[in-house]
Structure formats: structure tokens, C-alpha cells
Amino acid sequence: MRLFTLFALTVLATGCNGRLADERLQPPPGPAQHGTVMEPPPSLTAVVLPEQGRASFAPALPSGAPPLRVACGTCHATAPERPLPAKPEQLQQFHQGLAFKHGALECASCHSVGQPPRLHLATGEALETSEALKLCAQCHGPQWRDFQRGAHGGMRGYWDASRGPKERIHCVNCHDPHAPRYVGGQPVLPPRDRLLEAHPQEAQP
Amino acid sequence: MSHAITYPRFLWRMMRRSFDGSWRFYSWMIFLTAVALVGLNAWAHQLTLGMATTNMTDHVSWGLYIANFTFGVGLAAGAVMMVIPAYLYDDHAMHDVVIVGELLAIAAIIACLGFITADLGRPDRFWHILPGLGRFNWPISMLTWDVLVLNGYLLINLHITGYLVYTRFLGKKPRRRWYLPFVFLSIFWALSIHTVTAFLYNGLGGRPFWNSALLPPRFLASAFVTGPAFVILLLQILRRLARLEVGEGPLQTLTNVMRVTVVLNLFMLGSELFTAFYTGGHHATSATYLFFGLHGHTALVPWIWSAIALNVGSLGLLLAHRFTSHTRWLNAACVAAFAGVWIEKGMGLIVPGFIPSTLHEIVEYQPSLSEWKVTAGVWALGAMVLTVAVKVALPVLRGEVRLEGEAP
Amino acid sequence: MTTPNPSRRVALKVLGATLGAGAFARAVAPLTEWTKELSLDAFLQKNYRELDRTELDAVLARHQQAAREKYQRDDIVIEDYRPQEGVEFGYALNLSVCIGCRRCAEACHEENNHDRRTHQSYIRVLEMEQGSFDMSAGRVDYEHAVPAPGKYYMPVQCQQCDNAPCVKVCPVQATWKERDGIVVVDYDWCIGCRYCEAACPYHARRFNWSAPEIPSEEINPNQGYLSNRVRPAGVVEKCTFCLHRTRAGRLPACLEACPTGARVFGNLLDPNSDIRRVLENKRVFVLKEELGTRPRFFYFFDK
């Protein structure tokens, strides 16, 4: 059987060597010229949820409207500094209704008081908000490792670094840092069997 | 006279005769032509609109056409059951009628080629499969083997029958070395056509329902049911309509063959079912679907139980000598066996191989009207070939039509 | 029944023949529509692997011209993308991360110019029962929000087998494995026998039961001869790892559409590629390994 297969494959292989296959192969990938490009993280400050308690100054939002997303600096550039509460429920005015489901963390575990608002690592080292990845990586080692190896998190662009960059997205594009469980959604494009379609009628001659 | 003159004359005379006959012959041929044209029309629509006119899907990607193709190959191979007694066992009574079996093989193979053509999405690219011209994937693809053995079988039988009829037309005695080797070759070749056709299916590892070493023997056993069954009926018809002299001998021999093959066929089916159901698991899902339905899908259940009933019924009739001595009961047994195997090999073997699909989805299949039309058309074509062949060949062999004598 | 006199007999025969010819013409009349689409050039066209440069250019130009006319789009370009030296593609899918949103199937649908009526796609996503690998308990037509509790999701597409059953069975060598591991189909050579569809253990092949219908504005104009150009009716097609993208260094469309990063693609021959790291560090398996098809599509779990 194996002999036969071998013979058969040889015949197949020789049969395959047509002209094109030999003639024109593209050159191999060259040295990497492009790295990974991070897309900017989205603005995350979902401060007001329409159906929950609203900040006193907030305009009345129609029910069902999407959460208000405002860049941090809009308020924090001018607002006076205050000490951070332990949990979002203790917030009296702003960021009310923030659903927090992220283990036993406290606000100050990640956020720093200061101008402009920043994050900080467990070591206390300050971190720009755009560097949030490193913050996540402190605890989520396996995910961070997989992310670096291209096995976690969406991407676009080129597999061949000699031809173009690979665009990556941040953790926070998919995982809300305050409630990181991935929410999912409705699936698209259900399969449709051909028979469920109207049968093409034979045209009348 | 040289053959360069007599052979064209032979062909001309045969062609003339194939358009000439009694009112019975004309009405039969007109009927077949009408059916064939309906099929041709449905096929023309299929080519224009695409195979969406069929009920096949990406899940059940072969249907009625390939089912009938498989059955047709069996019919062609089964005809050899007249050749074996005639030549291997020197059964003289069979010798006189063996030509009918060979003509049946020719007609069945032509029908098979018709089914393959009907099943192709791009018949306009037929030349791609011609050895030498296209890219013939031989010996890897079993389909290329099938092309070779089917066309080879067609040629061998055309040669044997053509040679015998032509020499009788010339009024000569056929020379054994010009046909006897081919007769013996045709015996092995008949086995090969159905074995290779079984290999088409049972070589596919992804289809557990087919992937059984018992498939080729089963195919042969069922072929040796349908071939003799059809010939028994055909011989009686020819005895009445075409003045073919058939004694009881050949009918008896063929009945005896059927007694064995019907049992064998059922035995092997039983073995397959034991293996499937006793083991259980995924190997049994297709069989479960076929016999009992799966998750409320039961499209094939009536088919297979009819097949079982027909096969068991024919077995009962054949085993009781009391019955087979009556032609009526023998004929009933033949019809039952023929229909039983037709269902078992088509809707009972080809279709369930695809259900559930390789991803275990259940998409059912029932042939569309268009498929039935094309199928009827192809069988009508086969019947036309058989009718004309028998009509032309028998009088020549009886010595009624000769080069000298009888006015054209 | 009396024998009719000879002249009457001849007259009857002529009448019969005329009626027969008329009926025949009527029966094959639909074919005129079909033959309009055929041309001598197309009929005589050689297998892709036998075309030399000039012939191939002519074929590409003919197809491109026809596509531009049919869809009234001047931006349609049909090119011949060849394998790269030193590149063999591999694809891996993280079952722990996939949420079954079917965006990959949708991206495939749009990228590869699939028929819009049938939602055709080379990818089928199975919703599986947690803790079981029984595909018969899975389903593909779920419509509820995903990921559903107690389920996991397994997208299946062409596994680009090294020992591909579909390639073996093709009677005309219309399908073959290219040097970078991609199994392709020459849509201009396939005779539509669908033997490959019966042979494939992964439901990876699709037949064009009728000519695909795609609105002109939805056509993806960047097309490959062996991949996403609009297929004719009556031939088989399959996933090509988007070779018109991947042979230009880009990632496949299904990967780019994946919101969770469940998909990993790259060059198996490059030891530093993402795909190699997955194969070397994850618990990887292939579908239906027992069939000996040696897929180049891998699955893995994180946890």
C-alpha cells in the first residue's frame, strides 16, 4: 500500500511540474522593516449611564441612549484634585453608575491623583493612559504573552514584516477595564442552505 | 469482397433495420423518444440555469444521477452472469442467448455514461478528462479508473457482439480466436467495473458509511441480482416479441444464480448493519438515519424499508420452488429484486453516505422533478439502445438477414 | 394489421422524422442561452499549470475585461499571485477565545465575492457543547447572542491538508497543492463532477449550483485568478487562505475580521512567526487526525 502510494505520489508530483510552478515563484520575505503599530485606544470615560443615577449637572439623556464618552481631560484639566475613593459606589458626583466588576481592585490600584490624570503600575511608576497594556499585563501574564505572540487580540495588516506593519488593538478595545468580561454580541451572517431558497423554476419554453 | 465494402454495407443495413419495424416497435420507440426528449429538455434547463434545478446541495452533493449510475454499472456487470455459464461451464442453452446479456451490458454502460454527463457541472469541458488530451489524473483518482474500465467494457462488448453479428451477416462462422479471448476478458472486466465503482466510494475516509471493505463484494452480489433478474424478464419478452428461442434452461440457470446472490446480498447487508449498530457511535449515524431517522429527519426511512421488503420478498419467492416453477411468481420475484436493489444502491447507499455531513449536519435530500425527468430520459436512452440492438442483432444471428439474399 | 403500402410508409416516416427533429430542437432550445456564455478561447484554454506567461496574460486580460463589463467597474483587477519562496502557510485557531460571532464567515463572504443570496462562505462556525467534542451535538444555525453559556465555538474551513483527499480524487487535476501549502482550484478547468466534495472530510468545498449573484457595488475588485475572482456556474471552489492577500504579505480577511484574535496566521518556515510560537507552545490539535490528511489548520485551547 505504501509502495503504491509512493508510486502514485511520484506520478502526481511529476504531473504537477507544469511550467508556471517552476517559472515564477515570488522572492522570499526580506528582513523585517515594519514593526507593530498600535491603534490609539478609545476614550473610555463612560461616566454617565442613562438609566442609572445621573450627575447633577448632566443634561437629561433620553432613555436607551449610549453612554456618554468624554475624554478625561475635559473635566480633569480644570477640576480640583480630590482623594480617590476605594470603590466607584462611593462616588458622590461624577462617574456615578459605573459598573465595576474587576476582582478586588480599588480605584487607586490603577488610577493616580494628579494633573493630567494618569495611571500607575503596582510599583507606583506613573503610566500614560495610552500605555494601559502594561498595566493589564501586570496581572494577566498569559494573555499578555499571547498578545505579544499574536495569539490574542484582533489585528490587521501584514503577516510579512518586510512588506508592511501589523496593526494591533489595545486590551481596552474589547475589555472595559472596569468590567473586563468580554460582552459578545449578536452573530452575523447565519448560513443559509440552498434548499431554503426559492427553487429556480424551469423557464417555460 | 473486402471488408472495406461489406462493413459499411453491414452498418447501413443495420441502420435501416433499426428504423423499420412493426407498429409495436414504432410505438415503443416513439414512447422512449418522448421520454428521452423530456429528459433532454430538463437537462438543457439544468445547463442553462445551473444545477440549482436539482435538489442536491453542498451537503448531499451526489444524488439521483450518481445513484442510478451506480445501479447501471451493476446492471452492466450483472449481465456477465450469462457469459460465465455459457463459456466457463459450456452451458449450450445459455450459449444461444448470451448475446442478449452482452447487448444489455452495452445499453447499461451507455446509460451510465449518460448519468455521468448529466451529473457534470461543466459537460462542455469533457475533453479535460480524455487521456492524452486533458490532464488525466491516473492512477491516483479512482474516477479515472472508472472512465477506463467503463469505456473498456463498452468497447469489449461492442467488439464481441459486433464481430459475431457481422460474421453471421457475411454468412461465415465466427473464428474463436477473434472473440473468445475477449469473452474471457469481459468476465474479469465485468468484475472490475463494479469493483472500481465501489472503490469510488469506499476509498473516502471522510465518509464512514461507505468506508467499508465489504462494499465491493456487496456491489458485485447486488449486481448479480439485478443482471439475472432483468435478463430473465427480458428473455421472456424477447421470446414473445422477437421470436427468440429460449428454452427453460437459461431461465432456470439464472434463477439459480439469483437464489444464491439474493441471499449473499442480504447476508452482506446484514453484516454491515451488525457492525454499524452493535458498535454504535459515529459509524452508525448514517445507518441510524437511513433505517430509523435521526432527530426527526426521516426522508429515507420509507425508501430503505421498501427495499428490504422487496429484497426479502423476492428471496422468499425464489427459495420456494413451488413459486418459481410458475412464471408469474418468478417474474414477480425478479421485479421485486430489481426494484429492491435499485433503491438499496441508490437512495439507500449513495444518499445516506452524505447524511449526516462531514460536519455532522443533517441536510436531507429528495430528488427534484427535474432530476426525475433527466433520469427517466437517460434510462429511455438506454432502453432505446437495447431495443435497437436486440432488434438488429437477433435476426442476423438467426440467419434471416444476410449480405446475400433478403432484399434490403 | 395490414402492411401499409410503401409510399404511405415513406410518407409516415418522413412525417415522423420531421416531428422528431422539431421536438428535439424544442427540447434543446434552452441551450441557446447557455452557449452564449461559451467561447472558443475558453473552450480551448489549457490547465493553469500548462499556460506560459503570454497565454496566462491573455487569460487574465480576458477575464478582467469580462468582469469589468459585467459589473461596470473599471477598478476590477484580476492578477496571478504566485507562492513565495521559503513560505509555507499555517493557520491556527484559539477555541478558548472564539466567541462564535461569525464575523470571519461574513468577511470571507465579502472578500471572496460569494453569492449573496445563499450567504455563501468558506467558513462554517459550529456551536459546540462545553466539555464535548461531539460535532453531531453542535449546530451552525444559532441566532442567539454569543458567546452563549455552556457553549464553545469552532469555525471550520479548508484545512489545506498536506495529504488532501480532494486533490487525490480529482479526475482532471483541476485542484492541486501549491508550494506554499495552499490547495487551489483552477475554476476554468474543473468539470464539476463534485468528487472532491464527496471526498473532503471537512465540508470545505462548495459547488456553484448556479452563477453567483453579487451587486456591482459590493464586488471586491482586487481579485486573484486562483482565489476570489467571481466563479462561473458549475465548478467547485474553496478557501485559499485569501491567497490574493496572503501572497502579497497581508493577513487573511477572516483573521482581520476576528474581534477576539482567535486566529493566528503565518509562515511555518519562519521560526519566529506567530504561528510557529503557537504550535510550539500551545496544546495544539488537528481535526480528524485519524484520517491522515495532515491539515495545516490547527486548533488550540488556552486553558
How would you describe this structure to a colleague?
- The complex is a heterotrimer of chains A (205), B (408) and C (303).
- By secondary structure, chain A is α+β, with helices and mostly antiparallel strands.
- Helices cover 23% and strands 10% of the residues of chain A.
- Chain A is built from 7 helices and 8 strands; from the N terminus they run ααβββααβββααββα.
- In chain A, the strands form 3 sheets. Chain A has a 3-stranded mixed beta sheet with strand order 1-8-7, with no helix packed on it.
- The relative contact order of chain A is 0.15.
- Chain B is mostly helical and 408 residues long.
- Chain B has a single domain, classed as Formate dehydrogenase/DMSO reductase fold.
- Helices cover 72% and strands 0% of the residues of chain B.
- The radius of gyration of chain B is 22 Å and the shape is globular.
- The two termini of chain B are 18 Å apart.
- The model of chain B has no long low-confidence stretch (mean pLDDT 93).
- With 303 residues, chain C is of the alpha+beta class.
- The N and C termini of chain C lie far apart (88 Å).
- Chain C has a single domain (89-301), classed as Alpha-Beta Plaits, CATH 3.30.70.20.
- Chain C is built from 10 helices and 12 strands.
- The longest helix of chain C has 23 residues, at 6-28.
- Chain A binds chain B through residues 8, 11-12, 15, 193-195, 199-200, 202-203, 205, and chain B through 41-42, 45, 48-50, 52-53, 55, 57-59, 135, 137, 139-140, 363, 368, 370.
Summarize this structure briefly.
The complex is a heterotrimer of chains A (205), B (408) and C (303). Chain A has 7 helices and 8 strands. By secondary structure, chain A is an alpha+beta fold.
Number of strands of chain C: 12
Assign an overall shape of chain C.
Answer: globular
Q: Which class of secondary structure composition applies to the elements of chain C?
A: alpha+beta
List SSEs of chain B in N-to-C order. Answer: HHHHHHHHHHHHHH
Low-confidence residue ranges of chain C: none
CATH architecture of chain B: Up-down Bundle
**How many strands appear in the DSSP assignment of chain B?**
0
Percentage of residues in helical conformation of chain B: over 70%
CATH homologous superfamily title of chain B? Formate dehydrogenase/DMSO reductase domain
Assigned CATH class of chain C: Alpha Beta
Spatial gap, N to C terminus of chain B: 18 Å
**What is the ordering of alpha helices and beta strands of chain C?**
HHHHEEHEEHEEHEEEHHEHEE
Q: Major beta sheet of chain C, specifics? A: 4 strands, mixed
**Helix residue percentage of chain C:** 25-40%
Q: Tell me what the CATH architecture of chain C is.
A: 2-Layer Sandwich
Low-pLDDT runs of 5+ residues of chain B are none
CATH fold descriptor of chain C:
Alpha-Beta Plaits
Task: State the oligomer.
Answer: heterotrimer
DSSP helical segment count of chain C? 10
